[in-house]
Amino acid sequence: MTEAKRSVSRSLAYKSVGIALSSALLLSPFTAAAQSQNSVVSKESTTNPSPGGLTKLRGLSLIQYKGSFLDLGEHRLLSRKDIVQEWDDIDPDYSPDKSIEAVKALLSEQDFEQLFPYRLGSDEWFKVAKGKEYYKENQSDYFSYDNLIQAVQEVSNLKIKISTRSGTPSQEIVRLDKEAKVETLVLRSDDFNSEENKMKTIETVIVDCGTFLKEGFKKDRKRELAAFLANLSHETGGGWADAPGGELKWGLFWNENIAGRTGVNMDAFVDPATAKLFPGVNGQRYYGRGPIMLSWNFNYGLFSSIIYGDKNVLLKNPEQVAADGKLGYMTAILFWMTPQDPKPSAHDVMVGRWKPNSAEKAKGLVPGFGASILVLNGLEADLGETIGSPVLRRAGHYRDITKRMGVDITGEKIDTLNMKPF
Fold this sequence. Notes:
Layout: E1 40-41, E2 75-77, H1 80-87, H2 99-106, H3 109-115, H4 123-129, H5 145-155, E3 158-165, E4 171-177, E5 182-188, E6 202-208, H6 218-235, H7 258-262, H8 297-308, H9 312-316, H10 320-323, H11 325-337, H12 346-351, H13 358-362, H14 369-376, H15 390-405
Parallel strand pairs: 1-2
Antiparallel strand pairs: 2-5, 3-4, 3-6, 4-5
Helix pairs in contact: 2-5, 5-11, 6-15
């Protein structure tokens, strides 16, 4: 597993928190203002709603949406009117209390156990790991079925609003705790309200994280969960060609970058360009952890801001991502739900919302599991299910999981052969 960085200038621009899933998060630093102390305030909104809400609107006029008046890290308790006008309301179909039902309706705990017998902290894992350098006597069942359900439940309580100045990478990101009815400004670029940018319109899209596993036909919801687990299983896989039980049984085996954990790479992974907004804590290292190998100070700080409304939780305690399986799953779900311009979200690909435009068709991009791979890792373009290809294991997991779910995927584009990156 490696850690690298990718330009965030447009990956954050469209309904995105700028996350990329491969063997590590691939992000590069951006310039943002320092965060102020958290406080609850009561201010009148200065925004006027668009007729249909903000959920899918682009190019909102300055009169319709002027950006948040909050300071970074500041909270605001919303009225019912505020939520309707500024957050496109709260849909009860996507509430946290429906999330447990959603997971159980797609994949039973028994089937999950049989798919991932060697997952980190399972009985089989303890048998294999005992005596190895990575063995932990008190290792919890990190990737447990219960942790998955709890993660879906907690993420379902979040909405994320991403606002971008048209034609620029300059952004604001606001999170909404649906139950508490509190919004928090978690990111604002230094130049978001500069004299030059104030003349540019704001493009705003809202992501309701409660739609995970709850949109489309039941078959599509099953395919979404299968694709999600298949991609995570590849990233965290510990198997090999002739592994006991078969390579696919060893998905979800790792949750830390090996070089970072063992000290082979002692880099703190603190980027100077983002240290003002997301300062690294002395003695802490921000190497890859969790099912998506969350890496770098700015990712730990941003995810912490979105999940907790406080950047300092994970900056002070980055090891929690590897210690808490529920938290690990939450970081993966947040990635899954948010597009990275020009790429759609993996969620939209799997539930059928994404329809390729002419430019995407020219690249050979078609709906299906193969397209979800390219959303996560464009480096795996134009690969078939051949020996040595990473797509082979991803597709293998997908076939294995959908078969267990009783889903027919005949005719679906599973690999990335003849497809170019988005």
